[in-house]
């Protein structure tokens, strides 16, 4: 196999014989709700949500087990049937022989083209698939059949799309019974299915979705006949790979305006026999999709089933997504630049697909989690910051007054739903992420006043940080915390952040680190909810508290805010000193007292807190956490390596260090002690040595999440039940590896940070090993295969790291600052490295010119030019925001930053 070859600087790539690889799939979707996956043989599914699947749901294993794929057949007079997608028993039998058909994939953002050529039949197909970026709820295919022989061929063309048309729950549950609900109708252009009822976990309800397939030739000729029922299409003893009606070229007897009931449906659409002259082509357009009525499919046929309309809409869709991805890179490594273009796109995919609607992401029923809301915003702040303020404000409505948060997130922005299943699981890391995103937003925009905006708090059955139930609450009261007067209480965003961090500070285990509860970022650390502790995230909360104190100082010193309004109940959490903080029982009692005060409702009274006192209190807690971890969690093993212990298990035992079966080390604790500045510079150097020795493995993409504990550690988490080198147990987990790079860059260890990213990128870009299309996967398994591609929070962190740390383009209270950490080898032959991005609603191209060909650490920013005119700066290379906003918003501006 050859690697993916990029064809331009917009991520478009091609790959020969892609079907020679298992588990390959590609996303095509739109923001109107259509979510499709497509393989090189056009397997995959198409759906709107968990209960609205047009094509049958597929997990990663169904990609090769499932015969129910999109297909297009050509019966060639005198030769027989040939599948334009390669999905026939005969073609698949030749997959590993000399007669294998040549295929080539070409794909770009949200479009997919596969070409296939048969020497045996002297015929070639080219199939372009995409989902329009409009509000249309359809997926489009253009099939071009070319006669590559020197003689004319008579062909019979048939589109064949099996129609599932129901909830994913019915894949096994009531599969046959739900087919009895089908009402199938043929129209002039195709076949529609309108089930009478939905038959899923929501109960028996009248169905409101019409599913269908419509098709025409490229110049608008309508089909001549149909075969809408699966069992008639495949014939007795047949299958989708050897359909009797196709292989025997049987006549399709159903015409337009027929109605059938109670069978599995297929969009089998027959066209008039055609003569394709030598070296000539014939084109067909197929649309599959969702509607509210039959007339919707008539409209689809009228507007989309012509080649000229298809091509125009495809170009508009390409332009739409290209405009969305308004960040790009120019370095010495053009492959890296293109690979990053796909990484840029991944957060957008997760906004559309959630974490469940691609084949590897088969572990849920849709939607995003709490972390996803905040981490996807990191990328949006870099690419499309418009609307982020409102998004952040709405998201804070999911915070409970005990510092935890809603875990069921609705489809609308800011919609949070009470858990009717009575599950009280709490992830202890959840309170830390909103601040990281909010801090980035404030740095990028200078909008410090956002901290003083007000938002409500989420309320449901859970109280006391998931340990108790509020028996006085029921859903009729609504999902907002109320004051004693039964009016909805709203507190500032700053108050929300303090609630999240102060409650966590007091929520400690017996070693005085923050309790692990149901898990932290690593969801598989889920079996230590009684005595488990997360030192790793204790350090992150500590770093956040220090940064909150800095923002408070800015409010005080620059915005002249002398007092902060806080809910009266928070005074409990603002008590204490180091003597109190050292006492585990006293801290736990303080938290219990606070939780009791806000168990059902709160008073609704606000107290005026002196800003200086609040800063001192928050800063004191931050310093205590840092000193506590430094004093108690720095370990040295018998081989002389030193690093931070990250966890305690459910038997209250330290997890890392020398174990009975070898060294136990986890990456997470190193990342957050470095990032929070808990680790000293000397300790960072020691951590790097230990990580390189115990966790680094170039063969699988870099830094593993942990060493092999050689134990099914049921007092810590399910991850230890996984095979080592897979998922959370010792795989290269991209998210934490990239956060490790980010932490290293932040602390000035640019060479080491680059090594993390470069190893991961080179592995993913080596298709022969990673077996994935461009982009960063969730993790890399023991064989080196990329797993769970596209939908991963690591993409947001990689964008953030490359933009703000590697290129060093960052906000400084709304101003534009430059702190590049680009290595000498990253500059191109012209000694240049560049990045295009949006800042302050202006399109900018930042060009770094390394005139002296100096290495990182030896160069400094000496001169800045905006559109050719020198911009004078004082000590730090920062451009005032007003200068940026004075630029024309309709054109791209070049900022040249000279390094000497």
Automatic annotation (TrEMBL):
<dbReference type="GO" id="GO:0030246">
    <property type="term" value="F:carbohydrate binding"/>
</dbReference>
<feature type="domain" description="Glycosyl hydrolase 94 catalytic">
    <location>
        <begin position="617"/>
        <end position="806"/>
    </location>
</feature>
<dbReference type="InterPro" id="IPR037018">
    <property type="entry name" value="GH65_N"/>
</dbReference>
<protein>
    <submittedName>
        <fullName>N,N'-diacetylchitobiose phosphorylase</fullName>
        <ecNumber>2.4.1.280</ecNumber>
    </submittedName>
</protein>
<dbReference type="InterPro" id="IPR011013">
    <property type="entry name" value="Gal_mutarotase_sf_dom"/>
</dbReference>
<dbReference type="GO" id="GO:0016757">
    <property type="term" value="F:glycosyltransferase activity"/>
</dbReference>
<dbReference type="Pfam" id="PF17167">
    <property type="entry name" value="Glyco_hydro_94"/>
</dbReference>
<dbReference type="GO" id="GO:0005975">
    <property type="term" value="P:carbohydrate metabolic process"/>
</dbReference>
<keyword id="KW-0808">Transferase</keyword>
<feature type="domain" description="Glycosyl hydrolase 94 supersandwich">
    <location>
        <begin position="113"/>
        <end position="304"/>
    </location>
</feature>
<dbReference type="InterPro" id="IPR008928">
    <property type="entry name" value="6-hairpin_glycosidase_sf"/>
</dbReference>
<dbReference type="InterPro" id="IPR012341">
    <property type="entry name" value="6hp_glycosidase-like_sf"/>
</dbReference>
<dbReference type="Pfam" id="PF06165">
    <property type="entry name" value="GH94_b-supersand"/>
</dbReference>
<keyword id="KW-0328">Glycosyltransferase</keyword>
<dbReference type="InterPro" id="IPR010383">
    <property type="entry name" value="Glyco_hydrolase_94_b-supersand"/>
</dbReference>
<dbReference type="InterPro" id="IPR052047">
    <property type="entry name" value="GH94_Enzymes"/>
</dbReference>
<dbReference type="InterPro" id="IPR033432">
    <property type="entry name" value="GH94_catalytic"/>
</dbReference>
